Amino acid sequence: MCVDLTLFPLDTIKTRLQSQQGFYKAGGFRGIYAGVPSAAVGSFPNAAAFFVTYDCTKSLLSAGGALAAPHVAPVTHMLAASLGEIVACLIRVPTEVIKQRTQASPSSTTYHILLATLREEGVRGLYRGYGSTVVREIPFSLVQFPLWEYLKALWSSRQGHTLYSWQAAVCGAFAGAVAAFVTTPLDVAKTRIMLAKVGSTTASANIPEVLCDVWRSRGLTGLFAGSIPRVTFISVGGFIFLGAYEKVRRTLL
Fold this sequence. Notes:
Layout: H1 2-6, H2 8-18, H3 36-62, H4 73-103, H5 110-121, H6 123-126, H7 130-159, H8 165-182, H9 184-195, H10 207-223, H11 227-252
């Protein structure tokens, strides 16, 4: 929650850079905290859902059988992270839809956007882009979490003892930055689908169709629109979030 609120302006800039109407028409640097109530409400349960699923799955898979062997640990982390994302997206997507629509329409409030979405599309409208979000989050987690676990194990073996929380945070920042950059095109497609007007082609399109459209209209720069604020948000956020997560988890356990 701390990460989402302190770094929220970067997320707003990223959303506006990726929107179909363009950065300045979507609000530019005005109303940089538009949509923050939605992020605040969804942040806690979203993170809780992910890590409860991630850690439980990791523990179950590591308990015995073929996946318990050290050399297949990355596979265990990938499966656990993927399942965690699928569960977390049930909470994340509705808050993300409302947040991004408010970010791209700074003259409206979160409450008005929520009412408008329910009136025009019903509850189903809150889950528009669920598939594209899962398709974005799973590759992201497949890169971030195995890389994070690998870097922690490597650093720990080099220095001969368990990492301090700040060291785990550095590993998290690096892993997050790499994962954020390589999955930016998927994030662009997800943003376009969520922001599209009801009944438009983009609203009902799939990720390959949206990416082809972006490629035709804006080329490679369009596919990686918002990559700098996205990488900054996730690397700084990863440092704070994963570092705090490691510290609190060790304290509790």
